[in-house]
Design a protein that fits this description.
The mean pLDDT is 90. The strands form three sheets. A seven-stranded parallel beta sheet has the order 3-2-1-6-7-8-9, sandwiched between helices. The chain has a six-stranded parallel beta sheet with strand order 12-11-10-13-14-15, sandwiched between helices. By secondary structure, the chain is α/β, with parallel strands linked by helices. The protein contains 15 helices and 15 strands. Helix 8 links the parallel strand 10 and strand 11 (259-264).
């Protein structure tokens, strides 16, 4: 197959979608397919390019949090797309490049698959108008104003955004959900297009921490304490990080000053979170390290005794599987995505959004050495089920079925034309 992957963000931007696109594309190429990646340019360049990455333009302005706004109207997209003669499009966002993907699919009579990576209704605060209105509601002393504007915000979150996602998904030929809970969510929202579950895969390197490098990281950050913990997260509102700090404060009360927690990742809340940690007496217990190269994640997780997580906005939780692959058990808040990966007593603990319960489970992980060893083995076993090769083979089967459905729905004349590339594999 000849496949066009289309995304609103990609390397050098660090995030779940770029990782997913890169790993899936790599796995499909290993199976013999040709994969082109349409991705935006970034200021200053610096991308390590290959001929199968097609960069299109970006706007000068950014969203809150310095998220780049891609220019899906760039004529370069269609100019290059036209000569590639692809069999299908796999788009990874409904907005911006998603609309371009639907347009190209209709114009060139090829099917479009869409992966629902993100609970978009939980990310509306990145829109400046929404964020300003939300801030005014929170600060308002006028109950009528707060009620009226709060209602507008709820309609946007509970009706407008889900309605847009539903409309977009129902124009595609296949929808891919990264977890069972997300597949259920989409069907419950009224998505009628076939929905298949396909998580992001893990490369073989994710299962093999560099023991020397992991030991070096542990020695560097342990600071004479007994336990080293970590989390990987964008430091932003949707990741529920104030709860994580509250849980750490309670954990410190339970086990004493015996651990250090590493926050891997950056974002707009780094300064407020650092101040909050200091105010809670966690200044010596936490370290905010900023963005870490993706190839180093396995070594940081391999250096730690546990991976702590509080986000409720994940569709899958790639970072949970990355931690498990390195032998790092997880303590996470039960939410969409996390519940499909974390099994209490097998590879970590899944808790309610309750500081007492969460800190109790984290304390068990640290204090019960036999349990910790058992959970580490279970974590690796879980992660092994998500290898990139296995996921690429799933994608191939889903693509083939989608193309066949599309051909039969297109009618006999188009079926003959659309079948040209299908006969090549």
């Amino acid at each position: 197959m000849r496949i066009a992957m289309m995304t609103n963000n990609y390397k050098p931007y660090i995030g779940g979608v770029p990782i997913s696109v890169e790993r899936l594309s790599s796995g499909l190429r290993e199976l013999g397919h040709t994969v082109y990646i349409f991705a935006p340019e970034y200021p200053g360049g610096g991308e390590d390019e290959d001929p199968y990455i097609i960069r299109y333009g970006s706007f000068a302005h950014t969203l809150s949090g310095n998220l780049q706004i891609p220019n899906c109207f760039d004529p370069k997209i269609e100019d290059i797309f036209r000569i590639l003669d692809v069999d299908m499009i796999h788009v990874h966002h409904p907005m911006m490049i998603g609309q371009a993907a639907l347009h190209l699919g209709r114009k060139h009579h090829i099917p479009v698959a869409f992966t629902y990576h993100t609970r978009y209704e939980m990310y509306l605060h990145y829109l400046k108008l929404y964020a300003r209105l939300q801030n005014r509601v929170e600060r308002s002393r006028n109950p009528l104003f707060a009620s009226a504007c709060g209602g507008v915000l709820r309609v946007a979150q509970e009706e407008i955004v889900p309605g847009f996602i539903r409309h977009f998904a129902n124009q595609c030929s296949l929808v891919i959900a990264p977890s069972r809970s997300m597949a259920f969510h989409l069907r419950n929202q009224g998505v009628e297009t076939p929905v298949e579950v396909m998580p992001t895969g893990l490369p073989e390197s994710a299962y093999a921490p560099d023991e020397e490098r992991a030991a070096e990281i542990r020695e560097r950050f342990l600071g004479g304490k007994k336990h080293l913990l970590c989390t990987i997260s964008r430091l932003a509102e949707e990741k529920n990080l104030p709860f994580l700090l509250q849980g750490l404060a309670r954990l410190k009360e339970r086990v004493g000053d015996s651990f250090r927690m590493l926050f891997l990742g950056d974002g707009p809340l780094r300064i407020p979170l650092t101040a909050q940690a200091e105010a809670m007496g966690l200044g010596d217990s936490v370290r905010f390290l900023g963005s870490i190269p993706n190839e180093e994640i396995v070594n940081y997780c391999g250096a730690c005794d546990g991976f702590l997580f509080a986000s409720k906005s994940e569709t899958q939780g790639i970072v949970l599987l990355e931690a498990m692959a390195a032998g790092c058990p997880v303590v996470a808040v039960k939410a969409s995505g996390t519940g499909d990966v974390v099994v209490s007593g097998r590879n970590g603990f899944l808790t309610g959004e309750d500081v007492e319960e969460w800190s109790y489970c984290a304390a068990r992980l640290l204090e019960d050495e036999a349990l910790g060893a058992e959970l580490r083995l279970g974590a690796v076993r879980t992660a092994r089920e998500y290898g990139t090769g296995c996921i690429a083979m799933q994608a191939q089967r889903h693509y083939e079925s989608m193309i066949q459905r599309y051909q039969y729905s297109a009618g006999p004349s188009w079926r003959r034309a659309l079948g040209l590339h299908m006969n090549q594999y």
